[in-house]
């Protein structure tokens, strides 16, 4: 039986199966589910927990031996097996079938690891146990679904967060649910029983480098050249991974291209892209000086940077990033921009 992340708590209130498969590429949700399973087992009398790893001279027979061994501490055991590659092989698949066929099996076996490919769920071993176990896949939350995830977190912590503030959190913590959950907990401590808007997020957010990247996007769109130079140098000083900056630049140029093509449907496209009203004017300003040909030039520069950074490496990637940022200013004088960079370094 397939159980999704948002169904786990409700499902754990039901009788537990003897086997749970927990696989996916999102570590925060996976750890959350493991903690939920452990808590449910503790409530239901599983007083002993054993752990194995399939990469450590592992033999599936050891699981059966543990299940059959008498224990002075507990009659029901929670047995966890970490299987990083999500591939049990012939022996593992046969073992799962044997485990599920054991009558009066009081123990729970939880096998967890990396993402399980769709092809695995169509194999014979998976089909043999599908109706006798739970399969819990955990996926990376897509950007368009992240606001819903944040809303659930806000409700759990009884937080009143404005849509604009929520949008900033989505930008800052996309791909980092663990950091996002930690930040929501901090907000609940700092701003209990009050509305949280953009200014509160700016004051409270702990990931200053990522927030600075967000500021860089706003200053790029607003054509604040000197501020852009200062931010790039600050990020370089903090040794922020350059790909985080180029990810943001790619996102902004993609947004601008879609908005340029939208024409009279600008507002509708903003809504589709989840661009809040308080940022619309920034994109309008940028589109007054950037046409599709210029945006394509920026995209090409970003693609070239990515190839060179990943293959040959760059002596100073931040300087190259500064030149790409200069393209957002439209017909930039690179020589003057270099002078501005050097002037700031000597200040």
Automatic annotation (TrEMBL):
<feature type="domain" description="DNA polymerase III delta N-terminal">
    <location>
        <begin position="21"/>
        <end position="136"/>
    </location>
</feature>
<dbReference type="GO" id="GO:0003887">
    <property type="term" value="F:DNA-directed DNA polymerase activity"/>
</dbReference>
<keyword id="KW-0235">DNA replication</keyword>
<dbReference type="InterPro" id="IPR005790">
    <property type="entry name" value="DNA_polIII_delta"/>
</dbReference>
<dbReference type="InterPro" id="IPR027417">
    <property type="entry name" value="P-loop_NTPase"/>
</dbReference>
<dbReference type="Pfam" id="PF14840">
    <property type="entry name" value="DNA_pol3_delt_C"/>
</dbReference>
<dbReference type="InterPro" id="IPR008921">
    <property type="entry name" value="DNA_pol3_clamp-load_cplx_C"/>
</dbReference>
<dbReference type="InterPro" id="IPR010372">
    <property type="entry name" value="DNA_pol3_delta_N"/>
</dbReference>
<keyword id="KW-0808">Transferase</keyword>
<comment type="similarity">
    <text>Belongs to the DNA polymerase HolA subunit family.</text>
</comment>
<dbReference type="Pfam" id="PF06144">
    <property type="entry name" value="DNA_pol3_delta"/>
</dbReference>
<keyword id="KW-0239">DNA-directed DNA polymerase</keyword>
<protein>
    <recommendedName>
        <fullName>DNA polymerase III subunit delta</fullName>
        <ecNumber>2.7.7.7</ecNumber>
    </recommendedName>
</protein>
<feature type="domain" description="DNA polymerase III subunit delta C-terminal">
    <location>
        <begin position="215"/>
        <end position="310"/>
    </location>
</feature>
<keyword id="KW-0548">Nucleotidyltransferase</keyword>
<dbReference type="InterPro" id="IPR032780">
    <property type="entry name" value="DNA_pol3_delt_C"/>
</dbReference>
């Amino acid at each position: 039986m397939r159980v999704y992340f948002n169904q786990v708590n409700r499902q754990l209130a039901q009788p537990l199966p003897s086997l749970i498969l927990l696989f996916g590429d999102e570590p925060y949700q996976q750890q959350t589910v493991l903690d939920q399973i452990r808590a449910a087992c503790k409530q239901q009398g599983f007083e002993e927990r054993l752990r194995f790893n399939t990469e450590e001279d592992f033999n599936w027979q050891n699981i059966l031996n543990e299940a059959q061994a008498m224990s002075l501490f507990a009659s029901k055991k929670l047995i966890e097996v970490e299987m990083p590659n999500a591939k049990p092989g012939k022996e593992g698949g046969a073992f799962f079938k044997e485990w599920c066929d054991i009558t009066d099996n009081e123990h729970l076996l939880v096998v967890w690891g990396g993402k399980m490919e769709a092809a695995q769920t169509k194999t014979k071993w998976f089909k043999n146990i599908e109706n006798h176990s739970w399969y819990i896949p955990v996926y990376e939350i897509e950007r368009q679904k992240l606001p819903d995830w944040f809303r659930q977190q806000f409700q759990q912590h009884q937080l009143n967060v404005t849509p604009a503030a929520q949008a900033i959190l989505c930008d800052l913590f996309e791909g980092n649910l663990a950091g996002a959950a930690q930040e929501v907990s901090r907000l609940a401590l700092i701003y209990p029983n009050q509305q949280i808007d953009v200014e509160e997020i700016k004051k409270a957010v702990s990931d200053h480098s990522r927030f600075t990247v967000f500021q860089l996007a706003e200053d790029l769109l607003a054509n604040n050249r000197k501020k852009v130079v200062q931010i790039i140098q600050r990020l370089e000083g903090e040794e922020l991974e350059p790909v985080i900056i180029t990810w943001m630049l790619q996102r902004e140029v993609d947004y601008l291209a879609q908005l340029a093509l939208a024409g009279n449907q600008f507002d509708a496209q903003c809504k589709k892209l989840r661009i809040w009203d308080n940022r619309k004017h920034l994109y309008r300003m940028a589109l007054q000086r950037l046409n599709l040909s210029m945006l394509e030039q920026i995209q090409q520069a970003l693609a070239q940077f990515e190839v060179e950074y990943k293959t040959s490496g760059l002596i100073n990637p931040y300087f190259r990033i500064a030149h790409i940022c200069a393209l957002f200013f439209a017909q930039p004088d690179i020589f003057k921009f270099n002078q501005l960079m050097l002037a700031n370094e000597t200040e």
